[in-house]
Design brief:
- This protein has five helices and eleven strands; from the N terminus they run αααβαβββββββαβββ.
- With 183 residues, the chain is an alpha/beta fold.
- A seven-stranded mixed beta sheet has the order 3-2-1-6-9-10-11. A two-stranded antiparallel ribbon has the order 4-5.
- The chain is globular.
- It starts with a helix and ends with a strand.
């Protein structure tokens, strides 16, 4: 399948999920993250602020915000900036995503872990994003542990990554943790 066909297929699968299924999947995925030694040791974590069709990060952030320093991305032109998470200063930004306000940007190299959304992953850690390359440009700049999160149906193995695609180190779905060999 082409990336376009995969995006359409995943969009259709997500549309079939009810709220309970979405919550159950998010709980399972983030419970698996919470058990990772890398998460337990990490202090600075970049996480996405979920869109309605993505695994929700809201409960996860809320549960850990007093023990971890969370950061969120903010779109700035063709790139993502990293800012500290503060639920009181979020505003609707690019692509109708809640983003942090302010000038307190942080270098992505200060992150110890990056929780990465995607449309799809394969078992080699390659990802298909929404097509704008924001995360690929960001992930290329960091040595932080890159953790991809997805519904089980978002794990597909029939696409070829582009040369500029940056893979993740671990892919976590409700039913499994896939460590990517060689990372």
């Amino acid at each position: 399948m082409t990336k376009h066909e995969i995006r359409n297929h995943i969009r259709a699968c997500k549309a079939l999920l009810n709220d309970s299924e979405r919550r159950t999947a998010a709980d399972a995925v983030f419970s698996r993250i919470e058990k990772l030694a890398a998460f337990l040791m990490a202090d600075s974590i970049l996480v996405y602020h979920s869109l309605p069709d993505e695994l929700s990060t809201r409960e996860f952030i809320s549960r850990w915000e007093n023990e971890k320093r969370f950061f969120l991305p903010r779109v700035n032109g063709l790139n993502l900036e990293i800012l500290p998470y503060n639920r009181l200063t979020l505003k609707l930004g690019a692509f109708a995503i809640e983003e942090p306000e302010g000038d307190d940007t942080t270098d992505v190299n200060e992150m110890e872990m990056v929780v990465v959304p995607a449309v799809a992953y394969d078992r080699r850690g390659n990802r298909i994003g929404r097509g704008k390359g924001y995360y690929d440009r960001l992930l290329a700049q960091t040595k932080a542990l890159k953790v991809g999160v997805a519904y089980d149906f978002q794990l597909v193995d029939d696409f070829e990554p582009d040369p500029f695609d940056v893979p993740v180190d671990i892919v976590i779905t409700p039913s499994g943790v896939y460590m990517v060999k060689g990372r």
